[in-house]
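agent> Task received from the user: take the single chain below, predict its 3D structure, and emit structure tokens. No templates, no multimer pairing.
agent> Plan: (1) validate residues, (2) run structure prediction, (3) serialize to tokens, (4) report one or two observations.
agent> Step 1 OK, no nonstandard residues flagged.
tool_call: predict_structure(input=
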Amino acid sequence: MDGVSGHGAGVRSVARIVARDDGRGGTSLPVLESDGPLALRRTRASGPEVRVMLVGAMSGPLGGDHFTVEARVEEGARLSVGSAAATIALPGQAKSEARYDVRLSVADGAELHWLPEQLISAQGSDLYVTTRVDLAATARLVLREEQVLGRVGEEPGRLTSRLTVRIAERAVLDQELACGPGAPGGWDGPAVLAGHRAVGQLVVVRPEFAAEPVTARALGEGATVVPLAGPAALVTAVAPDALRLRRLLDEALTSLA
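)
tool_result: status=success, residues=257
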């Protein structure tokens, strides 16, 4: 497909997924397109859900690269998307910022589980990540984001991450976190990461939360859950490493079941 280039400004790559109710109690994938560093693979699933794995065919994103992943889940369909390995933001020959944009939409009666592996900000990298989710009123969502600041024994690069969630065209979440060299002061202080090097978010949207909102509470050491202004809940967690962060988020998801 079109969308990938290797000129001096960096690589441009786009991956697209469309999931559709197949009319037989399952879900089909009429669109599964990817190029360059982004490769999409359908994997085995049971029941009405279809599963897709995002495989990094090349290293990156590097400085100057721009990756985009788009997924649309149509009415009644069920899609789960994961990744085969962590994504590592690396410095490149181009000194400009790299970008990674995720655009997700979920229709009425549809469900999306967006569960990629961690994003690791390597020393010297500069990455801006945006995730935008648009949900219909009765859509369901489980979305996990995990960022790890630096590989073992190294300082992090600069990482800016913005997450926006809209339900029935109403914004229920719009937050941005900037970490690493050049980020606004205080990002590593007690009010933000408090010296931790792994941070994650879990957004759960279910229509039944409208009648029974989630109660704001701490979820062990390093994690909290709060209700959002809609049928949704947000879990935020910090941890010393990726393994502990994943454990916190998995426990949080179980508690919301």
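agent> Step 4: summary for the user.
The helical segments are 242-256.
agent> Done.
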